[in-house]
Specification:
Elements: E1 3-5, H1 12-18, H2 23-29, E2 43-45, H3 46-59, H4 65-71, H5 81-85, H6 91-96, H7 98-102, E3 109-116, E4 119-126, H8 135-153, E5 161-163, H9 173-177, E6 192-196, H10 208-225, H11 230-241, H12 249-255, H13 260-269, H14 274-292, H15 297-303, H16 309-320, H17 324-331
Antiparallel strand pairs: 1-2, 3-4, 4-6, 5-6
């Protein structure tokens, strides 16, 4: 089963409500729960997400729902991946490194880069399937790729050419949507974006203000979600930071705007510690991925911040009494 972080559809509830739909009912129709959207690091079935978007587009009479949702988002929906990738020396290096980190956000999609004359093409390729089709999921994903490209290039996302293999949803698309989707190409040979190859040599732009707002919003979300539990706040931060490899006590404390010693002391007063919460969170995430077989054990170890798969294997056996492979096989029989 291919999985994706629920953060990929940030803003879904607001947009559906604005279009006159009932997000809770639509989520239920796709076999999903609204509670799954409360934590952006909760993993969803990729196929279920595709089904949800198709159901929503029909219910809201919005054939470009996926693109419209993407236009309400920023690259922060990709979690820490967008921050990590954008720190490459050039835009070309950032694009080249997307696939290296993309599996931390979603499994079942890849980005292929090709140069066509004076243009470079970034094409999305999906391994997943859905009985209702993938049109809306493709729209959303291409829109998010365009957002990321626009942000690191300091361009308007309208300046990024979007190409979709699906046919135009309505014949009068220009009249219906005006300039909102001007320059978009339907019935294309690929799903992705194109831009001038000259832009690849640029240094990626870091939107420090956007990142600051992102972390401020995240802190407020933590306080609303876990108003009386510092341990749960720490677990949440660890779960989000693990894939980037930057999950130290110092980083977690900084996000909470606490000195590391203060954080440790407060956790001790609650009968816990940073090391214990890190271990617990890693085990919870490991079990989730092993149950759904969403990635190899080696990839899982790296995703959890272990420098070597053998270290992960020893830790998992010590905590569960069996190897990761044995646990995965036994979970599949339940």
């Amino acid at each position: 089963m291919f999985l994706i972080r629920s953060g990929a559809i940030e803003g879904y509830t607001r947009l559906v409500a604005a279009l006159g739909g009932n997000p809770v009912r639509l989520l239920a129709a796709a076999g999903l729960s609204e509670s799954l959207l409360r934590n952006p690091n909760t993993y969803l079935s990729y196929s279920k997400l595709a089904e949800l978007l198709e159901i929503t587009a029909i219910a809201c009479s919005e054939p470009l729902f996926g693109l419209r949702l993407a236009r309400t988002q920023t690259s922060t929906v990709l979690g820490d991946i967008s921050v990590t990738v954008s720190q490459q020396p050039t835009v070309g290096d950032a694009f080249a490194n997307i696939n290296k980190h993309l599996y931390l956000h979603a499994r079942g999609v890849h980005v292929a880069q090709q140069q066509r004359g004076e243009e470079v093409q970034l094409e999305l390729k999906f391994e997943i399937t859905s009985s209702r089709g993938l049109n809306q999921l493709v729209q959303l994903s291409v829109g998010q790729l365009a957002n990321f490209a626009a942000e690191i290039l300091a361009l308007s996302n309208h300046a990024i050419s979007i190409y979709l293999r699906q046919p135009a949803p309505v014949s009068d698309i220009g009249l219906r949507y005006g300039k909102t989707y001007e320059g978009m190409k339907f019935d294309a040979n690929s799903d992705g974006i194109r831009l001038s190859a000259k832009l690849l040599a640029r240094k990626p732009r870091h939107d420090e203000e956007a990142l600051r707002r992102h972390f401020e919003d995240y802190i407020q979300l933590l306080k609303q979600r876990y108003p009386d539990s510092l341990q749960d706040q720490v677990r949440d931060i660890i779960g989000q930071a693990l894939p980037s490899g930057e999950c130290s006590l110092e980083r977690v404390a900084a996000i909470l705007e606490l000195h590391p010693r203060v954080l440790q002391k407060r956790l001790q007063l609650q009968g816990s510690s940073y090391v214990a919460l890190l271990q617990e969170t890693r085990l919870t995430i490991a079990r989730e991925h092993l149950r759904f077989k969403s990635m190899s054990i080696t990839e899982l170890a790296l995703n959890l911040g272990y420098a070597d798969v053998s270290v992960f294997s020893r830790s998992f056996r010590r905590l569960t009494g069996m190897s990761a492979r044995q646990w995965r096989d036994s979970a599949g029989r339940i």
